[in-house]
Amino acid sequence: MQLQGLLDHLLKSGRAGHDDAAATGRAAGGGLGDVLNADFGKGAIAGGALGLLLGGNRKTRKLATYGGLAAIGVMAYRAYGDYKRQQQGAPVEPETVDRLPPPQAELHSEAILKALVAAAKADGHIDAREREAIEGEFSRLDSDADVQRWLHAELEKPLDPAEVARAAATPEIASEMYLASLMAVDEQNYMERAYLDELARQLGLDDALKAKLEAQLRAG
Q1: Do 89 and 95 touch, CB atoms closer than 8 A?
Q2: How confident is the model at residue 63 (pLDDT cuts 50, 70, 90)?
Q3: Average pLDDT, the chain
Q4: Quick one: pLDDT band at residue 198, thresholds 50, 70, 90?
Q5: Residue ranges per domain, the chain?
Q6: How far apart are alpha carbons 210 and 189 in whole angstroms?
Q7: Measured between alpha carbons, how far is 15 from 18 in angstroms, rounded to an integer?
Q8: In 10 A of CB 185, how many CB atoms?
Q9: C-beta of residue 179 within 8 angstroms of C-beta of residue 164
Q10: Coil, strand, or helix at residue 65?
């Protein structure tokens, strides 16, 4: 099963669609906001796997803004490194996915994709029909049968922050899982905010690290 390529392609294709929408708006002489509000739902992102999974154009745009898996990892490790320096006074060497050997990179990617799928379920929007549509779109990105079985199982699971958190093999991955989840939810939604808070607790993130990760996301 190769989840790393699928996840990175998913995120990068989201970024490409985001940029295409911006270019379309500029070419038409309108503002980006006009394109995003009026036409974005017709584009590749909202009609594709990422848009279906997240269940909302605004969430999709939020996640797509940050690019691929490595870019999200850099943001998470920057925040984690700042946190550790304050705690221990020592620098932290990043272990972003591009620096990991293939077996570790695959487990890393599985953890992040698991976090994204769970975050997408946090508002309860994914029903049986939507699950089928999501799986269909993911199969267009990657037809590997093992990947499809994994995705089906993740979509069918009850939402359980403790189960999601068990995929975090290291504190660094826990930080990245939380950041990816934060990108994929609507923090103003009570159910999604409650899920994020419980996920952070299950991941073992204290308030100081949560604040660093959230500040890093705001800073971009």
Answers
A1: no
A2: low
A3: 76
A4: very high
A5: 67-219
A6: 18
A7: 5
A8: 24
A9: no
A10: coil
**Residues with Cβ within 8 Å of residue 165, at least 6 apart in sequence:** 174, 177, 199, 202, 203, 204
CA distances from 18 to 11, 36, 43, 68, 71 (A): 11, 9, 9, 13, 16
3-state class (DSSP) for residue 168: coil
Size (the chain), residues: 220
Q: Tokens 């591009």 sit at which residue? A: 98
pTM: 0.79
pLDDT in tens, 97-115: 667 777 788 888 899 999 9
Residues 178 and 157 sit within 8 Å (Cβ to Cβ): no
Q: H/E element holding 116?
A: helix 102-121
User: In angstroms, how far apart are the furthest CA atoms of the chain?
Assistant: 53
Alpha-carbon distance 57 to 88, whole Å? 40
